[in-house]
Structures are given as structure tokens and as C-alpha cells.
Amino acid sequence: xxxxxxLVATARPTSPVTLEADYDPAVSRWLWLVKWLLALPHYxxxxxxxxxSALTTLVALFAILFTTRYPRLLFDFNVGVLRWAWRVxxxxxxxxxxxxxxxxxxxxxxxxxxxxxVAYPERLSRGLVLVKWWLLVLPQWLIVSLLVGGSGSTGGxxxxxxxxxxxxxxxxxxxxxxxxxxxxxxxxxxxRVAAYGGLMTDTYPPFRLDQGEREPY
Length: 217
Known about the structure:
By secondary structure, the protein is mainly alpha-helical.
């Protein structure tokens, strides 16, 4: 019994990228109609953050090439950008999974219903850093463009699911659980690809759709 408890206590997600969310079946019937306006300040901030993320990723590429290490401050910033984008996408038209307004922060928000984190790597491959962000990740980017519409995360299959869920919520007051689980799985795949393409991990994203609120362990 003790061994089993130890295994449970020390369990870790199968991926260094963790994307999770809390299902709320009773989101507002009408609020989604104006979330494009409510989320506008976040969209403006994210546009600037993504520019900064592109620049810091370029700096990180050279740092990894010469030292095998991703500078921690740059890593935390880029994880924070992904984290912020996921919270905004979850609130708005990436998922419409919550009516709680996302916080304006790059840091973790454990009490918010959408969470994302990337385990910090102590060492990264010098050889992979030259090819993984454009060559190795290319098949995954093509898939992600179909799943979530690329970096905007509001199109593709996920965008269609969100639209159908919005209609269902409007008429029934309930977010269909099957649509929700699939949508989260699509964004989880996209987050893994974004972290790999952003040089934050050497773990290649699996060609696998892990659905539901929680990461597989």
C-alpha cells in the first residue's frame, strides 16, 4: 500500500508542458456575445508580448547554442506569454470555458480555471536548437493550424467546436462536455507544439490527442 501511495504522490505528467482547465457546465448564455469587446485589452497586450517573445526566443537560441542553457528569465517570460494567451483563449473564443475575467499577469494564477506551465530544462541540445524550430516542428505546425487555426488559437477545429458550444449554451444553458473535452485536447496539443517550437523543451510533441481537463499521468 505504501509503495502505491508513493507512486501516486510522485506521479508526473507525461509531457513537460502542462495545460489544464476546470469544466464549468453553466457558463453564461449571453456573455460570449460581447467577450470580443471585453477581451480587447488582453488582445492588445498579447500582440506586444508576442513580439517580445519572438525577440527573446532568438536570444535564447544563441544562448542554447553556446551554453546549452535557456536563460531562466527569458524562459519564464516566454512561458508567461503562453500562459497569458491560454487564459485569454479559454475565456474568449478559443474555448469559451469560463466567465471569469483573466488576470493581467505573466505569472501563474493557480485559482484561475485555465492553467499552463512548462518544466524548466537544465540542459538543451545544441544540435536540435538549429533545426527543431523550423524543420522538425513543421509537421506539427501544419497539424496545429488545422486544430486551432495557428497562433491565434481561435480557428480550425477548435474554433468550430467553440461556435457549436456557444450555440448550445445559448439555447440550453449547458456547455456540452464532449465538445469541451475535445477542445481542451486540441489546445493541449497546440501548447506542446508551441513550447517545442519556442525552444523550451527537447521533448518532441506526441502525435496524440489527450482530451479532458487534466494531463495524463
